[in-house]
């Protein structure tokens, strides 16, 4: 039983046009706790019609929202930010219950997500245009920036709070209305955010939450409806490619934060203790279920054994269990399908010669748990090298030269994040510039912050979230040429 200080934050209906409503079909989604399989609640399921209605309401509401001053929108966003902080404990409990991550980690996500609202509340007042020097004395050239229009946001289950605020905050700041389609496994965090947004004064229709078992049906309406002018998606590369294709017919603006395959490169001159701490933080956060977590550990052969030994020693200190329990550092994976996929990847690696130093399948933990696992003797033909693992498995590969390390690091179609450990500043610049990634962590395992741009290149997507650049995806530039000016 989920006990909250404010039980009204736990919602089981759709939020459309400022109203809490049931889906037309009467169908329900059962939300369960991945740690023990217990049912939390049942949530109404939306389809095409409810999604279309939410889009129409967003269009009707957006004109008044856009006409507000930037400062007025900023004030409402700051109220929303304050309410999230005031309800931190309840929001974290909801997140842990539906997603599984440890409670302290859930609190960290809530605060991280809220930071985007605070940031873009300020950026709303800094959407500047320009006066361009004219080549004609009778003309004046001006640009202004305006909201792109109605925005659709499709968000994943691994960060059910922060992935929403990263998209909604800049959209609202720019003057857009947003329809959010959260992952069906973790909709409760999205609905709780809507409760607080409504309390903060976000007008009816400006933020709607549509939850549904038919992701395809909802997604097709969001991508094909002419009213929607922008789609923001965080999720798998394959789904992202499909959504881009579906958006093409209506030429929507898109931003895609897709899969990763992050290399974690440790050179011979690195501070090994620092590198191991970074590896623990990057690899095992959210049980390895993050798109930017270290996926392939490339370690110079001269320190390979020492790094592996220290990595194992620190991994042994991690506590696995129900995220709601005290001192737990790693919770369950999202479902049994995820566990099965990780197990198959590890088995394939060991069949081809990899050795497990710690971890591997442990049926005693529970059906959604997979223990932190470290593999050595990994080769490039193994799935754990070629594919995004999305679980607590760390494959270690040895390299001999800087050139070899760079080739291994870039040998993937993914280009989201990478991590580099060295004390050589020439190498830091040279290697970072050579890495084919949108984000590089240098002697640092945690790189996400609202003040810096988050996003990838290659097949990891396009666009940036956070920072001064993050609002650009939600605005259009309009050029105005004023003629007939007498000198």
UniProtKB/TrEMBL annotation:
InterPro entries: Ald_DH/histidinol_DH (IPR016161), Ald_DH_C (IPR016163), Ald_DH_CS_CYS (IPR016160), Ald_DH_CS_GLU (IPR029510), Ald_DH_N (IPR016162), Aldehyde_DH_dom (IPR015590), Aldehyde_DH_Superfamily (IPR050740), Succ_semiAld_DH (IPR010102)
Keywords assigned by UniProt, alphabetized: Oxidoreductase
Record bears the keyword Nucleotidyltransferase: no
CDD domains: ALDH_F5_SSADH_GabD (cd07103)
Domain of life (superkingdom): Bacteria
Gene3D superfamilies: Aldehyde Dehydrogenase, Chain A, domain 1, Aldehyde Dehydrogenase, Chain A, domain 2
UniProt record similarity statement: Belongs to the aldehyde dehydrogenase family.
UniProt name for this protein: NAD-dependent succinate-semialdehyde dehydrogenase
Organism of this sequence: Thalassotalea profundi
